[in-house]
């Protein structure tokens, strides 16, 4: 089984995985934040309110203790509550007034042994032990040492509510003889718990809203990404003709544009490759046919003993073989992706080298080569650039009439450097000027049609361009290149 269906299936799961990841990215941090923040706020508010309640109850207890006469309190004995003695009734009225005025549930007075002298709201008889004092023994130790204190632990009353107790010492003659206890309801816990529930509901609502936002965001991202994915899969399957649709989102739009540029480049390269293969097949067929024809004639002449004719056929076979070899070499030079190794190149020196390499062909036709080059330093691959200009000069020499002149000019132009190769040949017809840079397009019988396309390819690889301006008797190829300073300033 091929890997393509598996890869397509893998990509089909992309939107759902993107939605899951966005949900996790939105919800998990929010859930943790709400849980931690809500818990911290709840416990902080509870702690502050408990502390405030304890301080309030201990202050009420202190105010009550200041109204209690310690010596008279100690005179209350078991049974006084039954007999209703005057001292007991007086203390009860005092404590009841405190309870009614402050709204607390219970107010009681005990001696240093923790036995009840008066209990308003609790119902314990005189002389009974208060069970809650065992729970608050540490606080009572501080109270009997002369300090105010409040119970550290909330307790649940018979009505199911939470309560807290505040204590204050009762003194007589500079000595602590007892304590007042005031029990108050932690009524604030009702609103606090309601607030906690409200916070929980709001947090759940926020999570649901974030989930919806995450899903909508994932959908908004997955749709253009799916379109890009489909385009990439089409390109991978070899469909290079369907354009990549543009996307409105900035980042995804950049990806779409770059993918479209890549598709266009691949389509152009594929079309060029097909054209080159067709051109190679066409160009190779002619010399191969000639070689086959002349080799058959050579065989017949050798059998007949006509050695002079045989030598002519051998020469023709060699010419066709040389032309075939040139086709292959030009094809490889054009098709090969050669890396550009940039280095400083003196423009006058480069054009002089090209002139020397072209001099033999020029002398054969009595053509004069003229070089005029302004000093400049190019950032270029010397060997590739030499090959490109050499192709232009050879083309000009072949197009020039016998005894003519080819001018090679170099000068700065528009912040770059322009190399112009001028000849006075018959020119290129306008109908052919658009096709002259196509691979294998040639008007000469023994031309490969790859020299000019290769020259333009080398020019573009250097960040330059190759243009043609032609009319009868005046043809100029202009190769523009960036100067060294310009090239170095560009990011690579």
TrEMBL record:
It is found in: Cell membrane. InterPro entries: 2C_sensor_his_kinase (IPR050980), HAMP_dom (IPR003660), HATPase_C_sf (IPR036890), HATPase_dom (IPR003594), His_kinase_dom (IPR005467), HisK_dim/P_dom (IPR003661), HisK_dim/P_sf (IPR036097), Sig_transdc_His_kin-like_C (IPR004358). Gene3D superfamilies: 1.10.287.130, 6.10.340.10, Histidine kinase-like ATPase, C-terminal domain (3.30.565.10). It holds the Pfam family HATPase_c. Its main location: membrane. It catalyses: ATP + protein L-histidine = ADP + protein N-phospho-L-histidine. Keywords: ATP-binding, Cell membrane, Kinase, Membrane, Nucleotide-binding, Phosphoprotein, Transferase, Transmembrane, Transmembrane helix. It comes from the Bacteria. One of its GO terms (cellular component) is plasma membrane. PANTHER family: SENSOR PROTEIN CREC, SENSOR PROTEIN RSTB. This is histidine kinase.
